[in-house]
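Ticket #4471: structure export looks truncated?
Reporter: QA, pipeline team
Priority: medium

Steps to reproduce: submit the single chain below to the structure queue and open the exported record.
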Amino acid sequence: MQLGIVTSDKCGAGLRPGWRASIAAALALMAALSMSAPAVAADAFQDFLQSLWPEAEAQGISRATFDAAFKGLKPDYSLPDLVIEGRKRDDSAGQAEFTKSAFEYLNPKYLSTLAVQGRKFLKEHEKDIINIEKKTGVDRYIMVAIWGRETAYGTHKLPHDAIQVIATQAFTGRRKDEFKLELLAALKMLQSGVPRSKMRASWAGAVGLTQFMPTEYFQHLEDGDGDGKVDIFTSVPDALASASRQLANKGWVRGLKWGYEAHMPEGGDCSLEGPPGERTIGEWRKLGFTRTGNKPFTAADNDTRAYLMMPSGAYGPAFLVTENFKVIRLYNTSDLYALFVGDLADRIAGAGGFHVPAAKVAQPRTAQVREIQALLEKNGYPMDKIDGKIGSNTRRQVGIYQKKNGLKIDCWPTEAVLKHLRTNTAQAGK
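Actual output as written to the record:
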């Protein structure tokens, strides 16, 4: 920190002795403050960590494990999604599922490359994968697709120390309470014997080959290679089996397809999107929806329940997605993630690829989406969360608002929608 005071001997020589003494004292104080600021921040971080001891002890974590985990630990302020006073949040950082458009995220070239690699991976691990499919009911192609998305078939390495990442997020992240639970679960992992060296993580704290959050770790472990142990950090079969067990535990329906790309009929629109509009395939067919491509819906599909999902609003493909799509979303809460996994699985199986590509539509900034969500809620359009993320409910409510107000129905949180909402809200307040 600088106050712009000239301190050279030459300039200071002309000052009265009292002034020189005051300046010297001020500079000494500034130096002391600048040296102590990091220490104060570090002390606050350590104070926070130490405050967790009663809860950690209650969960069976020993003092030795607790102290070893936090000894010398410093926060990593380079992580995204932190809330730090004086720092502007960077909306371009964070999970690609929420910062990239469907056009960018669902890159056909990348998906094709992963599909080729996936078929090779499936052949190499076929025996274990078929056994896992029999035990859990989870489709083998979905299994391999998740592996490809999470690890790029082994080429992606997790860059962070899990304890440091999760502790930082719990201390000053946007979701402190959630990460506090994750931190306690991570300590339990250490207590159970997982070496710290294996606990490498994403910026959000997911660990292992298929990226489990620590709170998920003890719930879904599955021995995939039959050696009587489970190691999701180095054993491919164990990681695949545990990921599949997680999907099964969350409601995976054996033999059910994740979804179908669908053709929107004339008179239909994207405001029908989202789980609230779920109906059977037979009912969708009566509304004029058809399956794209050469395979039409069959009579056997009629009783399958599905909802309309349009990740780019009117600017891209439409899908009728099933219960298993919802389950994939529970693995990673993102429409784009689930769609990526579903399409990659289809490609690995020899099909896949969208008949209607995602358009190159601008991805609105988080602040703009958050304001639209807040104004929609204020005007009586229910929001699950005001978080700046473009989920199916946000797209649905934008579409319903557009339809009600005679606007172009594209279900996309554009600047035009925001301006209209601002004007309507201001007029309603008069």
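Status: closed, not a bug. The export was complete when the record was re-opened. Leaving a note from the reviewer for reference: DSSP finds 19 helices and seven strands in the chain.
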